[in-house]
Amino acid sequence: MSRAPRWDVEGRDWPNRAHSRFVTSGRLRWHVQVMGPQDGVAPTLLLLHGTGAATHSWRALAPALADHYTVVMPDLPGHGFTSGRPAGGLTMRAMARELGTLLDLLDMRPHGIIGHSAGAAIAIRMVIDDVVKPVAIVGIGAALLPFPGLAAKLFPTLARMLFVNPLAPHLFARLAQTSGETARFLMRSTGSRIDAEGVSLYTRLLATPGHCAGAITMMADWDLGALQRDLPRLTVPLLLVHGGGDAAIPLSSARAAAAMIDGATVMPIAGLGHLAHEERPGEVATIIRQFMEEH
Fold it and tell me: What pLDDT was estimated at residue 175?
């Protein structure tokens, strides 16, 4: 069982592999995928996946956007095939800062940012911290507010307990190797039914202790309370696309976050879960294109 996903093993037939590259920046060696129109002249969209995922999360959505945009998709630190840790750990601010450095190295300025779950929180943090200046943000199943009630305290505490236990990532990875367990976990935790390829890719990642450790560390370092206080400072147009059956982030949370941001809107999609962009990538791509064209 490898400690981290290996490009020549877990990544041997990775989705959109021909568009992958590796970029070294300080302590990080990023895995990034870039695709777009053949003439190379198009606005740039930065796509940020959520906790526990990687670039495979955009496997169908990115090609649907690449006819109109140059699409940039990194594996976040601690996830997928990006190795190393930023100075400051896997906090929201540290990730936002390091993503800005990566974009400078790539000489790319995002016209828009598409963030899934925790990726939406990082996108907003990047804008509030003046790392980037996009014209609009789209959040999909956006995780922007602390968990309600007792979970607000229990969730980060549990994540920190797992973080200090060196056996935790190995136990999670071994569980993911159990036949059918990843599919059951995804259904329980997200409310989404994704295709067999998607389940297989999540299984590859979650079966590696290094990827599990990255997800646990990110959860332990996450401070949604600070983001909640800063949400009213966001002045960029924001669209929150949210599955009506999202089992991870309730639709009410998206509406509460939007109410804190001037001009933010929520678009529910009935019948979809937390991984709405993997369930109906074509529909979500159309929504993104229309919103970007409006701005």
Answer: 60
* pLDDT value at 1 more than 60: no
Q: Answer for the pair 76, 48: CB distance below 8 angstroms, yes or no.
A: yes
- Which residues lie below 8 Å from residue 33, measured CB to CB, with a gap of 6+? 16, 19, 20, 21, 55, 58, 62, 71, 72, 73, 74
pTM for the model stands at: 0.92
The stretch 148-164 carries a mean pLDDT of 45
What is the DSSP code (8-state) at residue 99? H
- Give the total number of structural domains in the chain: 1
Which CATH number covers residue 145?
3.40.50.1820
Residue 9 lies in a domain: no
Specify the pLDDT at position 157: 46
Domain that includes residue 169, residue range: 17-294
Q: Point out which residues pair with 138 in neighbouring strands.
A: 114, 239
The answer to whether position 166 is within a domain reads: yes
Q: Which of 237, 245, 254, 231 is nearest to 290 (CA)?
A: 237
CB neighbour class for 9 (10 Å; exposed up to 12, middle 13-18, buried from 19): exposed
In a domain, 5, yes or no: no
Q: Are 238 and 261 in contact (CB under 8 A)?
A: yes
